[in-house]
Amino acid sequence: MEIIIQQTIKKMNRGLFIALEGLDKSGKSTQAKLLSQKLNAQKVSFPDRTTQLGVIISDYLRGNKNMSDEVIHLLFSANRWEQHTSIFNQLQNGTNIVSDRYAFSGVAFSAAKGLPIEWCKAPDAGLIQPDITFYLTAPIEELCKRGDYGREIYENSSFQHRVGSFFDILALQENFYKIDALKSIDEIQAEILNHISEKLKNNSLLQQKKLWKQVL
Ligand code: Z5A
Ligand code: MG
C-alpha cells in the first residue's frame, strides 16, 4: 500500500505533511518512526530538543527551570517557527514530512494550564497546516503503565485528563482522525496508512493551507 501512496503523492507536485498528536505515551514517536520509513518521509519532532531553544524547553520539562506559562508557550511555538522554512522548502521539493507532535500539543497543554485557547493558537497562526492529523488516544490509566511514564513535569494523571479534554475539542475543530492507542503497533500503522490512502482519493489535499490565519 505504501508504494501506491507514494506514487499518488508524487502526482501532487509537493510532499504530504502528516502530524501525529495525542496523549502522553500514546505511541506517537513509535508510529512517526515507522511511518517516515514507509513513506520515505523526513521526520520532525516537537519539541525539537536539538536547538538552543529546545535545550531550554528540555530543562523546563525536566523540572530544572521555572518559567511562566506564557513564556514556555511562546518558546514551544518559536521552536516550531525555527523549523518552518525548512519544512516549507522540503514540502515544495516533494519531500513528505511526518511531525511527531505539532502546534496542537502547544494549544492542548497550555489551555490545560488555564490559558485561553485563542491566545494559545495565535503565535502558531501562519505555520503550515498538516494535510492529515492523527490523534492517538486511550484512557490515561492505561497509558500511565507504559515506558518511563512520570519522568517529566506534565506526566501526572489529573493534568493529562485536562490535556485530553482540550485535545478532544481540537479533534472536532480541526478534523483529526482519531485512533485507539490501545491497538497493537502494527494495527495502528495499518490504520494510518489506510486513512492516508483514502484521503488521497479525493482532491481535498491539493491546496497547502496555513494554520489559524483567521485568528489574527
Ligand atoms: N509539549 C507542550 O507542552 N507544548 C508543545 O507545544 C509541545 C509539547 C510540542 C514533551 O514531549 C512534552 O512537551 C509533552 C508535551 C509537551 N508533555 N509531556 N509530558 P515529547 O513528545 O518529547 O514527550 P515524550 O517523552 O516523547 O513522550 P510521548 O511523546 O508522550 O510518548 P509517545 O511518543 O506518544 O509514545 P512512544 O514513545 O512511541 O511509546 C511510549 C511507550 O509505549 C514505549 O515503551 C513504546 O514501546 C510503547 N508503545 C508504543 N505503542 C504501543 C502500542 N500500540 N501498544 C503497546 N505499547 C506501545
Ligand atoms: Mg514521543
Automatic annotation (TrEMBL):
GO molecular function, one term: nucleoside diphosphate kinase activity
UniProt record, GO biological process: dTDP biosynthetic process; dTTP biosynthetic process; dUDP biosynthetic process
Domain annotation Thymidylate kinase-like: ranges: 20-192
Pfam family name, one: Thymidylate_kin
Keywords: ATP-binding, Kinase, Nucleotide biosynthesis, Nucleotide-binding, Transferase
EC number(s) from the headed UniProt entry: 2.7.4.9
CDD domains noted in UniProt: TMPK (cd01672)
Keyword Kinase: yes
Residues annotated as signal peptide: none
Protein family: Belongs to the thymidylate kinase family.
Protein name, per record: Thymidylate kinase
Organism of derivation: Paramecium pentaurelia
